[in-house]
Amino acid sequence: MSDVITADPGAEKMAVAFARVLRGVDIAAPLDSVLTFVDALSLVGMDNREPVYWAARCTLARNPEDIPAFDRAFAVFWDHRESSAEIDTEELRITIAMDTEEEGSSGGSADASDDPTITLRFSGVETLREKDFSDYTDEEMRTAQKWMEQLRVAGTPRESLRWVASRKGTRPDMRRTVRASLAAQGEPVRRRWTRHGERSRRIVFLLDVSGSMEPYARALVRFVHAGVAGRQRVEAFTLGTRLTRITRELTSKDPDKALRLAGTRVADWSGGTRLGETLRLFNDEWGVRGMARGSIVVILSDGWDRGEPRVLADEMQRLQRVSFRVVWVNPLKVTPGYAPLARGMAAALPFVDEFVEGHSLDALEHLTKVINHA
Fold first, then answer.
1. Percent above pLDDT 90 for the chain
2. How far apart are CA 313 and CA 340, in angstroms?
3. Average pLDDT over residues 252-263
4. Is 60 within 8 Å of 37 (Cβ atoms)?
5. Alpha-carbon 292 to chain mean position
6. pLDDT for the residue 126
7. Adjacency order of strands within the sheet including 171-172
């Protein structure tokens, strides 16, 4: 006897309403897909968000390029459903709007209205992706911080000294081989092997906090915090007139607390810059002795240096010799007609493996990909 799925009237109403929402954001939701979604809802129920989301995505999101719009539409639709007793599909209207400060301060008239309208409000971060950090307001910076927290900075794996069990390895594992032979009366029927394990490469952030970097440093330090708080093998230092390690201060998951602690720790914020001398301190005290060996070193600086270019070139050469990759992030690189004419930048560039932008959210997303595939 075949199983028969009985459609839940509530599931039908929800499926129809959500299909109309998707069509409002130019995602095709054909009738056969909606009927399949109804059947799926009858099986998984409508109480928990996760199974409902995947039931909808598997049946209604046919094209990979539709997934970002689908995710935003589902998030808004689910919140509306949670706060609303019923959805009238006969009078349902859909509007699409962007979140702005003016709309957020206009009072609660939209919430108090009985008009059955679902307003899809897309996150303001979409409009900030290409905006220069130097033009950000405080509110926009807080919005960007939430986006940065979703980034996952993880370097490429490296071979470790630790040996781990493996089906096909390079060294026989005598202990496991003998132990397994006991089940075959002492005959080593199957040999066991070991191989070197893997561990993520350490990532070292060196952030320039001099006066010329002030328009970008407040955004970049938030990016560095997201990297430090997100995994274990990340170190963070600031470069200015002195070298300051801020790894411990940035380990807090609370970004406000972490940035406040880092601010009290860094005494030369928005001051002068001596990149060559501070890099020498890093190499002598931390880098060459072990922290930079085999690591991905990310320098976030505009390259303006008051010291001798030769000193910076020598220290960059030392750093490149021991590190796995050196990535230089310059927020000014996006400027039309930019050329590395600053003496510090020109001296350092021959010893840089990747030279990338760092002026916007899009640029930081690209930087994350560069680090993760270094």
1. 32
2. 14
3. 89
4. yes
5. 23
6. 61
7. 157-166, 193-200, 171-172
Give the highest mean pLDDT range of 46-55, 249-258, 275-284. Answer: 275-284
What is the DSSP secondary structure assignment for residue 245, as one 8-state letter? E
The one-letter code for the residue type at 201 is: R
Structure tokens at 245: 């390690």
User: How far is Cα 184 from Cα 207, in angstroms, rounded to an integer?
Assistant: 60
- DSSP secondary structure letter of residue 186: T
Distance, CA of 291 to CA of 203 (rounded, Å): 9
Cα gap 310→306, rounded to integer Å: 12
All domains of the chain in start order, with CATH: 9-122 (no CATH), 161-199 (no CATH), 203-372 (3.40.50.410)
Distance separating alpha carbons of residues 106 and 136, to the nearest angstrom: 22
Specify whether the CB–CB gap between 365 and 330 falls below 8 A: no
Residue 127 burial (CB count, 10 A):
14
CA-to-CA distance for 36 and 42, rounded, in angstroms?
10
- For residue 102, the model assigns a pLDDT of 43
Q: How far apart are CA 336 and CA 69, in angstroms?
A: 32
pLDDT at 250 over 60: yes
d(CA 12, CA 9): 5
Question: How far is Cα 37 from Cα 43, in angstroms, rounded to an integer?
Answer: 10
- Cβ pair 323, 265 in contact under 8 A: no
pLDDT of residue 107: 43
The residue type of 115 is D
Mean pLDDT lowest among 3-12, 41-50, 142-151: 3-12
pTM of the model: 0.64
Radius of gyration for the chain, computed over Cα atoms and rounded to the nearest angstrom: 27
Q: What is the distance between the alpha carbons of residues 283 and 285, in angstroms, rounded to a whole number?
A: 6
What pairing do the DSSP bridges indicate for beta strands 203-208 and 296-300?
Answer: parallel
Contact of 315 with 285, CB cutoff 8 Å: no
CB atoms within 10 A of CB 319: 25
Question: What span, in angstroms and rounded, lies between the C-alpha atoms of 344 and 311?
Answer: 9
pLDDT in tens, 167-185: 777 788 778 877 878 777 7
Phi and psi at 238, nearest 5°, equal -110, 145
In angstroms, the Cα distances linking 108 to 88, 103, 105 are 22, 10, 9
pLDDT at position 117: 52
